[in-house]
Model the fold of this input.
Amino acid sequence: MLHYSRSQEFGYIRILELEGVKKERLIAALDKIARDFDELKGFIIDIRDNPGGDDSTAITIINRFCDHKRVAFHRKTKIGPETG
Done:
């Protein structure tokens, strides 16, 4: 589901899938990564090839690394033909 690596100053997380992920496994993996990234200047979360998935999984990942509450995204559902 995810891979990570780090240099002396920066970390890198590549998220391959957000759908069908067991929350307990995800939290355990994120806790391990967070401990390994503790002293780094920053890190990259790469979702380029991710096909999408459950918003709650993405929010779990975001919440693990944010230091305070932020607006992460806005979503609007469209039903029917587009109106101008």
Notes: The chain has two helices and three strands.
